[in-house]
Records
---
Amino acid sequence: MQHRTVFEVMTHNVVTAAPQTPFKQIARLFAEHDVSAVPVVDPDRRLLGVVSEADLLRATAELPDLEGRSAGVRLLSGERGLPDAETAAQLMTSPAITAQPGWNLVETARTMHRKGVKRLPVVDETGRLVGIISRSDLLRPFLRSDAAIRDEIEHDVLADTLRLAPDTIRVTVDDGVVRLTGRVEERADVRVIARLCRSVDGVVALHESIEYAYDNLALDVEPPR
């Protein structure tokens, strides 16, 4: 068993900008392709940075209104000067936070959450852009059918990985919610079973009522002879 990878769910045909792409053309790319950011690449598709809607908005935040009055917005020192930015190279955030094709979706989601970003350009080992993955892409495993989830748990987890005898654990799945019942020898086994089943892609929640013969996690309990 293994988590789906970034390569399996990412967008492969990525809308990009060149360093010299002008401000208005970038805004037009957002509107025409219904995206909120574009990677900036060189002629060899090596990633240089990312321009987002937020970058364009920052570029206009300190511009005066039609009557010449300041908007009263105070940008951080690192953001000053952006009103004069005209091209992707001047607007982009660089270096960009990236993902790799072989990452699983769990580590990718953790990176997005930790860095506070909505999407990650995907680059190969040479730094060339090969795709882009967004938050919505990470939700695709939750579209898996209940039957597919149950099949993976029964065959990949319980039979192939844990080598449990058939019918040791009974599995039901309803709208991604997994319920496990059955009986095992040791209490510690219950933890392992629950953890591995919960990690299957598409599982929303897991409830178990698995019985055990003895509590090998308690210090004062001896295993049966």
---
Amino acid sequence: MKKRTYKFFVTALYVLLLLILVSCTEKTETKTHDENIQTIEAVLQNNLTGPDDELKQILKGEGKLEALGQYEENLYKDYFADETSYQEYISSYGSVLWIEPIRNDYKLEVENIEYEKSDSKEIIYNFSIELQYRKEDSESSEVETVNGQANLNEEHKIEDMLIRIEEPWSTFGS
């Protein structure tokens, strides 16, 4: 009888320990996943919603390059792993994305972003954005899907980001 009680107690303790371990692991993965998504979402929202009045003023004013550099640094730099990854993003996307929309009076707004973590050992997320765009003086708008990928490090900072922006940018010039 004593041996049976002992086996039951050891088995119950083992199951309880296993449940605690699994529970803690899931919370850590969920927290990490959420922090990665928050980083990606902040950059995408900042870069694909607008243009805001501050950016319009900078592009119309004197000393554009210095003001634009500070504007971009305030919006994006904290989300990138290092200076190189930040500069690569800014030179490919950053305010560069706003040239055609501003020139042709378009307003952009991120409607929804879907994320999918890749099966890779690296921290890579694919994303799909529903991007609404309209002429500033128009009531009607259109929605396009923009896809991309973000690679992050353990500190939840972006090492590399790709945004496939062919649509709707080809529309803005026409």
---
Amino acid sequence: MLILLPPSEGKAPRGTSKLRRLSFPELASPREKVLDALIALSESGQAQSVLGLSDGQAAAIDLNRELRTAPNLPVSDLYTGVLYDNLGLSTLPSDAKARATRRIVVFSGLWGLLRLGDRVPPYRLSMGVRLPPMGGLAAFWKPYVAEALDPVKGLVVDLRSTTYAAAWQPGERAVTVRVLREVSGTRTVVSHMAKATRGAVARSLVECPDRVGTARQLAEFLTERGHRAELGNPPRPGRPWTLDVIVS
């Protein structure tokens, strides 16, 4: 099983050692290109505008300038925010932490793909940015990510936001999890609550020692764990299943 997560805008502020070799080593060359481009942008006067940062977020540009020499920390500690708070990596028992390390892949505008054990410095770069000179990062990363992940077998549980989902489409072996809020029989898409629910779903999946290999098994498992999960109709060829998790 692969569990696909987005990163978070919020990141822990401190690390302890310099950048080292990352998982998915086949991404080394495109990572260098994005890293060079981001540092160059951050040394120009256009970074705040291109990165879409408010005045209060502009200090993140300083982090980007120092990426090659800045202290780093594990991905499991780096990302903060609602999704990762509800995933609660630090409170998992050791066997669930091991499954999380094997199963979770975090998509990143800067690094492409990361595992929880990778160590990287804090940075600011969304997958939705058009970074000179490569342009849109989702389109830039797409062929490299496909080469890295297409050969990986098994169910793919997609908990990414739309921005990060554009970087790879895993096809009909995947289940895209949507979070809907139901009030008086009416269902709507939610954002903040969706992050919390996706984190809780990811936690349920890494706490599970049993093999969940199909979309139907996934829906049954999440229902057993107390989630209100509804599997959509079989997808068109080449398209993922849709699993709605209903909250109120």
